[in-house]
Hints:
Layout: H1 4-9, H2 25-30, E1 35-39, E2 42-45, E3 50-53, H3 56-59, H4 68-80, H5 92-104, E4 111-115, H6 118-135, E5 143-147, H7 156-161, H8 165-168, E6 178-181, H9 187-190, H10 206-214, E7 219-224, H11 240-251, E8 254-258, H12 272-276, E9 282-285, E10 297-301, H13 303-309, H14 329-344, H15 347-363, E11 371-377, E12 380-385, H16 394-406, E13 408-409, E14 411-413, E15 416-419, H17 427-443
Parallel strand pairs: 3-13, 5-6, 5-7, 7-8, 8-9
Antiparallel strand pairs: 1-2, 2-3, 4-10, 9-10, 11-12, 12-15, 14-15
Helix pairs in contact: 4-14, 5-14, 15-17, 16-17
Bound molecules: pyridoxal-5'-phosphate (PLP).
Amino acid sequence: MPTAASLAHADTNNLEPFFMPFTANRSFKADPRLIVGAEGVHYIARDGRRVFDASAGLWCVNAGHCRKPIVEAVQRQVETMDFAPTFQMGHPAAFELASRIMQIAPPGMDSVFFANSGSEAVDTALKIAIAWHRARGEGQRTRLIGRERGYHGVGFGGTSVGGIKNNRKAFGMLLPGVDHLPHTLDLADNAFSRGEPEHGLHLADQLERIVDLHDASTIAAVIVEPVAGSIGVYPPPKGYLKRLREICDRHGILLIFDEVITGFGRVGAAFASERFGVTPDMMTTAKGLTNGTVPASAVVMQKEIYDTFMTGPDWMVELTHGYTYSAHPLAVAAGLATLDLYRDEGLFERSAALSPVFEDAVHSLKGLPNVIDVRNIGMMGAVEFAPRGGEPGRRGYDVFLDCWQSGVYCRQAGDTLAFSPPFIIEEGEIGQIFEIVADAIRRTD
Length: 445
Ligand SMILES: Cc1ncc(COP(=O)(O)O)c(C=O)c1O
């Protein structure tokens, strides 16, 4: 619950100095949406309203807000050891967290590299892919393949392999030697699909075209989100991920799944790789790793990748990469407590059990004014609106604002709204959220 101090602090009227990320700064500051507390599946707005957090923050608070075991673990840690380097030093809990992640990762993915954000995890994985090929004597494999409309964070690597045009256009040439698969949204054939859409397997075969164009010997890695999240929830077409795996295997290309959103139960299994039965060479994870409590991310990789680097004189650094805050003690404490909570409360299983209820609720929006698609998988769902003439994204923004004012916080991506509630949500609360959203859609022209 918000304390008097936090409410008072939130009363500041000078919003100007904070250049807000991924925000329409001027319209926000003209009519701010300030949050001063969080509890369970709710945010508490500055005006005291309880608002459903239908997005688990930014797809990260999978176990719900301000969970006591996590809060207390972080409190204990900050009193015991606030910071410890992991360059040429180590603290035991960091090794424990790596082991715990390994236990829930697909078989063989037995090595973990820590960073602080999804963006850092992605750039780390891309660098490891290139360095790994070099360590094996294939230093010419430097090309990276992403996908149109993919989101891989905001580092130069992630922006380069990312495919959301508005995220790229202001930043010049980005990395050279990058190509993109086509995106997988197909409204003509797949609108209102439940789960994995039927059509679109052929889109994975486009990787063969790209390999043919550049020659396999120049390509280091393919990176995709198993379910494209930030663009507005694109579940993979049936068989698509498996086909990518086959093509990568055929050509000696590493396959990276960006599981920053899909990891830690979001698709009804520990990871999307488990849910879809396809094991990548590396996975990037973040968000749900610490339930969003402390920034942290991890690249999880096949042991063989780690082993390849373990050559040369044993006193020399094997990979010249890392962050001051890799495996920060507070992040590690939050991570361990979060994984305990997921296990003790069976939250991945709960996510799977709630998914059909969530699916029905999202699809109840079909038939409402301007709704042209509804998509879902696991505890991720989206509704897409026809754009208003001359103002793409405006209708989505208007519905998003109405939802916030009516008691639901969700994510807007252009004319799409995305939903990803914490897994502790009750069935009745899912119903309430989508009634509020439906009313907002009806009110918006
Ligand atoms: C798939 C994916 N990769 C990377 C990122 C970047 O994570 P961060 O914002 O923690 O840098 C995100 C963030 O939403 C994401 O969804």
